[in-house]
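Q: Joint fold for the lines below.
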Amino acid sequence: MELSKKTDLIINGVSTAGGGVYEKVKIDGIGTVEGNLTSSTLDANGITKIKGDLQTGALDGDGILKIFGNLSAGKTLMDGQMSVKGNYRADHLTLNGILNISGNCEIESFEVEGAFEIKGLLNAGRMNVKLQGRGKAHEIGVESMQVRRASRSVWSKLWQWMLPKFTPELQAETIEGDDIDLEFTEARVVRGNRIIIGKGCNIELVEYRTELKAHPSAKIGREVKVGG
Amino acid sequence: MERDLISKKDLLDEKGISYGQLYRWKRKQLIPEEWFIRKSTFTGQETFFPKDLMLARIDKIMNMKDDLSLDELADKLSPLLPDYEMRKIDIHKRNIVSQVVLERFTPEDADSVVYTFERLLYLYVVDKLLQAGEMSLEEGERLLHLMREHFPKFEGKPCDLVFIRKMGVSSFALLSVPAEMYYESGVKLIARLPMAECIEQLKGKLV
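A: Joint structure:
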């Protein structure tokens, strides 16, 4: 294949495109891509479906974005709902809304306000979550993380209406990391170096290395100090 | 062949690393996904690693991470065959492959012939199985043939060598991992070698 200058893909209105390699992809309206898509940037407004893998340098989405394969992106900025059927790998994610990932998620910086569900492992460098609905992951492994309930803003009424009626809390089987700061979290095991268990937490087992701070109202089944 | 496993907790204690570091190395693909083995224990699901491979890998990362960035390190550790080349005489001198194997399988090559890493790897695998007393020289010949013909097709993707025997008739196969294999009754699995492990071992011998 000769190396020619890559073209742009632009969809306005309702349309379907094949996959391929593009420079810029811009979708306004309802766009479907019937295959793997590779691009430098992807800007999606409205309802976008990618029926394959998506690989892009920068992803900016507003509305609903569905990816049927794996997603690999440098930077992701998303407002609305994003779902990935495969694995998700990225440098940075900022999301307001709902995130659904059926596979694993590997990411350097994970900033989510809203709700999320990750069926596999969430592996993040920095994780910052403000929950307005339920956050769920099978396993979480991080360098540092902070979980908070979002403050009730003007938007929260709208969110409450849009989101499934789950109380805003984080659920995970295991959470492991160096610096862990939790609120409103239900987990079987939390293991780490410095751990803060804040209000509304219910943890069966906490294993910590240097320090553990627990809010008086937090429920902790068993706490163990490990290592030196 | 059940391999020696180490739990995540024991590994961290033994090497003095933190969860954050481990996850970070995984993200940077310094530790392959296949090494994360999930098993149910009485405390629920735990993660285990192949012990010898993992300990060696962690040592390597800890030794090199001061000089190299993690991305550079990832290139170094990729399972693709490195450009090590060696003359036949040096292979013998440094006892990387035994004299018997060299004599039997490379009689036509002069001492100064340079072997590529791939070729060396094939001989190393043959030598390994011979030394373990699991394989005859004739079978070694066939193994070498298989490796030459099919190993390059994996293009550096992880694969296992499987060696089985039934009623005295032996056969070899290469399969990509992770894969599960079930045999009919009467088949004896003599060896299953992860090639990535062999490559690591050989690399360790060369440097």
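Q: Anything notable?
A: Chain B touches chain A through 14 residues (CB under 8 Å). Residues 5-77 of chain B form a domain with the Multidrug-efflux Transporter Regulator; Chain: A; Domain 2 fold (CATH 1.10.1660).
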